[in-house]
Amino acid sequence: MLGCVRIATVRQMAQVITKEDADGRSYVRRAMKELAELGLAETNGKAGKHPIWNLTAAGQKALADGNELPVRPKAGTGAKAVRAGVGPHGVAVTDMILAYGGRRHLTDWQVEVNHAIKETGLSFNTDAVLALPTKTSEVRLFELDNGTMSQARLAKEVWDYERYAGHRVWEGARGTIGNTFPFWQRHRYTRSQTFPRLHVVLAGKEEHLLDNRLKALADDVKGIAVAVWVNTLPRLQRGEPWYEIGVDDPDRRCARYPEPPGR
To answer: DSSP H helical segments within the chain, as ranges?
Structure first.
């Protein structure tokens, strides 16, 4: 589990490895203590009163050597994030993953996935990406707001996905007419017919405040030309439906973003 989500508490790990009606926290505590004694896992901070666990570099290597996960050479252990004070955000991301059914397909998740376009300088990290293909897309994108950023910054992060989806690249031999194609479809999600849906999950505040934040976000991204679904973490944990606040519209994106020059 730590190889996929990078950081987690004993409670979260117990949710994955024990039966749904069982409390396996004592077992997990003993197991993590043994891993720590072997130098494979460690704690670097807390979420409230609960220690946050992560693999060490040796633990990550041992996991890779055992072929338990797909090769992820640039994946960190999560220790730096915890020491930097963003451990509670990472724990909330793990809660989001578990609430979305992460227990059933845990190895299909990656966290802190960078999306960048060098030509425009656009670069941002997606909190979590689920490689569970649909009929039209090979992944699903997830952003979690733990109630620590301003409403304006949250809206900007969502609009960044439209900017990423709207960027096009020109292809063609020199001297020919050539054509333009979406950057993401040529260089990132090559098996997708549509730009992956973005799921935004709101957490970190009382539920009525999260509902207010949801409504404000819907207003702030009105007219966005990528598919955006939003929910609160409590609602997601109860299995309640998502709210659609953005619809995928490639034609509208083409009209908003300039065509790249030919050669």
So the answer is: 2-5, 10-17, 25-37, 57-65, 79-83, 87-99, 151-166, 183-187, 207-220, 233-237, 250-256
For the chain, the maximum distance between any two Cα atoms, rounded to a whole number of angstroms, is 69
Closest among 143, 248, 243 to 194, alpha carbons compared: 248
pTM beyond 0.70, yes or no? yes
Give the closest residue to 240 by CA, choosing from 91, 90, 100: 100
- Tell me the residue length of the chain: 263
Residues of the chain by 3-state class (helix, strand, coil), percent to 5: 40, 25, 40
Q: For the segment 178-205, what is each residue's pLDDT rounded down to a tens digit?
A: 688 999 999 999 999 999 999 999 999 9
Sorted by sequence, the CB contacts under 8 Å of residue 15 that are 6+ apart come out as 98, 103
